[in-house]
Amino acid sequence: MRQVVNPPNPYDKYSSEFLGEPPKAKLEIYEETTTRSMISKSYNGPGKHRLTVNCYRGCIHACTYCFARRYHEFLGYGAGTDFETKIVAKVNAPEALRAELKKTREKIELLEFSFATDPYIPIEANYELTRKCLEVCLDFKIPTVIVTKSPLVTRDIELIKKLGAGVFFSIPFLNKESSKPFEQFTPIPDARFRAMKKVSDAGIETGLALAPVIPGYNESQIPGLLEKAKECGATRAFMSMLHIDSDSIEKYFVEKTRAHIPTKAEKIINTMKRERNGRLQHRTFAERNTGGTKQWKAATELFELHFSRLGFRKFERPRNEPPEETTATQGSLF
Fold it and tell me: How many folded domains does the chain comprise?
């Protein structure tokens, strides 16, 4: 059990502070039954957008760096422990997605699971909303890619094979010791690598999402992560820098970094600030994955060197086609 810790919500008129010790944060499931739209469009550069599906809001994994924390504030919750314990399950997600795909007139090149939370958080074992939405995508023959930190994805191997989807595993740290300060309740890296191997051994294309790279902390693990992913059958990989774009995320990340690794915290924070001209937050989308120092340039060159050496391919948002025998619903809609 963790204590309630939330930065002030910028969308709330009033805020409050606890007198004395804050109460314990309990896991609560808030069922949202009035979802009308399941496909979200997110900016991905000039003239580019990603289409994403999120069956849940909030994430039990509690990664301190998660950029999706700010979206919990739109619901009136906090970006701290509220994000980790007040989970929204969109219980009508499959029905809403099916209705949306039936009436869309825009050809969907790719749907990504997910963006605002991991599609395979622990409660997915009971709700099965991600699985049911993937079944909808199969009915409509929609190209799909999944990004997750959870071995639970292996439950749906047969469905993912039928769908022809690709699976990216987010593994930014090579071992439990380096992961723990930032990924408090996430499956350990070894468990994710085992799941990657199981998925790739089943004939599904897998990839490594080396994100985030935290300057001053995990750059040296880049070669080891790529090598381990290659051993586990991954064929694609990409990396990105720590992504902080709001005051509340910055406050929570700094607070937790100082609490979990006090001897390294200031080095990490100051190194990151040097990449952002004295700031932790990036100001524009163009700055999101670019650094301003030779240290970041060296990190990207290290990635490219081992990426090429091991024969990885770039992340191209794969459009794998389901098997020919799959009956497509979407074909008659356009």
Answer: 1
